[in-house]
Amino acid sequence: MHPLRRAARMLPLLAAPLLVAAAPAAIAAWPERPVVMVVPQPPGGAADAFARPFAQALAQRLGQPVVIENRAGANGNIAAAYVAKQPADGYTIFFGSVSTLAVNPHLYKSPGFDPLKDFQPITLTNQTPNVLVVNAAAPYRTVADVVAAAKAAPGSLNYGSAGNGNTMHLTGVLFQQKTGTTLTHVPYKGGPAALTDVLGGQIPMMFHNLNAVLAYEKSGKVRILSVADNKRAPLLPNVPTMKEAGAPGVVQVPWSGMLVRAGTPQPIVERLSKEMVEILKSPAFRAPQEAQGTEVLSSTPAEFADRIKSDYTSMGALIKAANVKID
Predict the structure, then answer these.
(1) Residue span of the signal peptide, if any (predicted)?
(2) Disulfide check for 311: which of 62, 102, 156, 266 has CB 3.0–4.6 Å away?
(3) How many domains does the chain have?
């Protein structure tokens, strides 16, 4: 064989050990450029309000900028599908939620991603219970009042939500199942629009995130009758849980968390997990969030994966039983 041809054949064999050595070195040096955090809501939303200070804290710990990229639309499907197609290198983080990861796959025929296969969970970050909120002028002062009115005239009592299939709607579905009532769902294009009509008296009530209605409760514009959680909210110690109010089983605590593309190298997953959990346990980060009614969480990747699987199953069963359809 010609010497030059023999040398050409040997090059891949000689280069292979160098490539193998280079891969761990590249992972050890991660991140070497800015990291993008994809938020599935517009700027200024509740997710954005959590993600931005979190990204700033993460940037300090990683030594690289963490850039927020808002990709709103399709109840989070657009953002999730985008991240599911990115390289598995840790440079794209997804701020996912129960709606996107556990609800949407049961509502959309082709959401563009598989929540159980396309993502590597890192950590749960926060959760906020839904609450039953009524207009201040409404005659309902307890959950029992709402149940009595609904049973006296089935279907006559309206409740709003951010749209068909969201967790606000599903809390109402669960409430009807557990209390034996029939309510009329009024879907809006977003939670703020529904809340505006509750404040204006166009609809009497809705099930909404605590942190979205807390300020209105403090100003006396609405009444919060109950918390859809197994425990009372620290900022509302006098407001009963649904179980305490006579509606056991009505528990709906929407959560969010950080994920990356499935297949991301384990050392990067471990680095992100370590840094994120440290932020989430920091009093400096927690205090402003908790003051708004947000419960700050943290978890291992495995614990977060289990939460996704569990809620994926339970939400699917609820949606199927109630025959919930998207708009």
Answers:
(1) 1-28
(2) 102
(3) 2
Q: Which CATH number is 182's domain given?
A: 3.40.190.10
Q: What is the pLDDT of residues 126-170, one digit of tens each?
A: 999 999 999 999 999 999 999 999 999 999 999 999 888 889 999
CA–CA separation, 232 and 274 (whole Å): 30
List the end-to-end C-alpha distance of the chain, in Å, as a whole number: 70
Q: How far is CA 286 from CA 97, 165, 273, 280, in A?
A: 19, 30, 17, 7
* Boundaries of domain holding 224: 130-245
Spatial contact of 69 and 39, defined as CB atoms under 8 Å apart:
yes
Q: How far apart are CA 295 and CA 202, in angstroms?
A: 31
Q: What is the dihedral of CA 311, 316, 317, 323, to 10 degrees?
A: 140
CA distance 24 to 45: 39
Instruction: Examine the fold and report which residue of 193, 212, 245 is the final residue of a domain before the chain moves on.
Output: 245
